[in-house]
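User: Please fill in residues for this 262-position structure.
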C-alpha cells in the first residue's frame, strides 16, 4: 500500500467534512443537542460529519473495518481499520469555543499507518503516514526540546463522568501545576496531542479517553519524535484508555509523578 497516497486522500476527505462543520458552526442550533450519557453530548453535526467521512473512506479501502464514535458503522476488517472521531471537542463546538477538530486514523493489522487531525478554527491539518515524517499544513513538525518540567507547558483533560479517580487526579494536577510553566485544558484530546507533536505543548496526560480520541494523535506524536505510554509506562494505552505523550525528555520525570497517584 502507498501510505502517502492514502494519507493525501484522507486529507482531502477530512477537508470536505471540515467545510461542512465550519458552515454549521455559523448557524448551530443548541436546542438540537442530544445526550449519550452524563455530560456526553452529541449533535446532528457530529452524526452527519461521521456519515460523510465513512461514505468517502469506504471508497478508499472497501474491505476495511470501522471504529467510529457515533456508531454510524461498526465492523471488523481483516487487515485495515479506520478509527474516527468526526468532531473531537463537541462540547467546545456546542458552546462556540474555538478548539475542536476531526480525527481519522488507519490501522493495519493493529498498528497505525496513517493519522490525520484537522483543527478547524485555525485551519491546521496535522498528518503523518508510515515511513514518513509528521507535518502541519505541509510543513514538517517536531516535538519540543525542552529538557524538564520547570521549562515546560503541559496539557491535560478533565473527566466529565466516572469520577472515582478524581481525587488522585487532582493531586497529580496540583504537582504538575507547581512544577511547570502551567497546565492547559483545551477540551479536545486530539488537538492536545498534535499540539504536543508540533512542540506547542511539551507533554499531554489524560485518563478515561476513548480510542477515537487518540488513535491519530498518538501516532502523529510518535512520528514527530515523541513518546506515548500508558500511566504505567507501558504500551497498553488502547486498553487502559490513559495517555502520557511527551517530547521524550519529560517521560521519566512525568511517569515518576503519575505513578505516585495512579
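Assistant: Residues filled in for all 262 positions:
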Amino acid at each position: 500500500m502507498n501510505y502517502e497516497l492514502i494519507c493525501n486522500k484522507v486529507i482531502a476527505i477530512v477537508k470536505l467534512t471540515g467545510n461542512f462543520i465550519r458552515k454549521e458552526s455559523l448557524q448551530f442550533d443548541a436546542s438540537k443537542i442530544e445526550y449519550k450519557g452524563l455530560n456526553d453530548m452529541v449533535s446532528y453535526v457530529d452524526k452527519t460529519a461521521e456519515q460523510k467521512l465513512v461514505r468517502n473512506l469506504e471508497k478508499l479501502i472497501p474491505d476495511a473495518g470501522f471504529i467510529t464514535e457515533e456508531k454510524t458503522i461498526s465492523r471488523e476488517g481483516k487487515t485495515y481499520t479506520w478509527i474516527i472521531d468526526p468532531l473531537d471537542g463537541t462540547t467546545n463546538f456546542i458552546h462556540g469555543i474555538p478548539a475542536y477538530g476531526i480525527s481519522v486514523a488507519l490501522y493495519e493489522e493493529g498498528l497505525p499507518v496513517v493519522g490525520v487531525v484537522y483543527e478547524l478554527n485555525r485551519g491546521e491539518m496535522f498528518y503523518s503516514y508510515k515511513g514518513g515524517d509528521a507535518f502541519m499544513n505541509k510543513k514538517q513538525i517536531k516535538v519540543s526540546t525542552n529538557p524538564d518540567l520547570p521549562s515546560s507547558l503541559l496539557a491535560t483533560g478533565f473527566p466529565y463522568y466516572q469520577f472515582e479517580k478524581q481525587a488522585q487526579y487532582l493531586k497529580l494536577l496540583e504537582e504538575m501545576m507547581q512544577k511547570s510553566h502551567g497546565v492547559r485544558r483545551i477540551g479536545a484530546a486530539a488537538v492536545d496531542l498534535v499540539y504536543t507533536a508540533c512542540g506547542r505543548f511539551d507533554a499531554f496526560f489524560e485518563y478515561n479517553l476513548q480510542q477515537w480520541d487518540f488513535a491519530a494523535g498518538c501516532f502523529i506524536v510518535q512520528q514527530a519524535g515523541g513518546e506515548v505510554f500508558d500511566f504505567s509506562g507501558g504500551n497498553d494505552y488502547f486498553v487502559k484508555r490513559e495517555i502520557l505523550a511527551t517530547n521524550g525528555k519529560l517521560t521519566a520525570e512525568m511517569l515518576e509523578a503519575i505513578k505516585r497517584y495512579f
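For context: The chain has eight helices and 14 strands.
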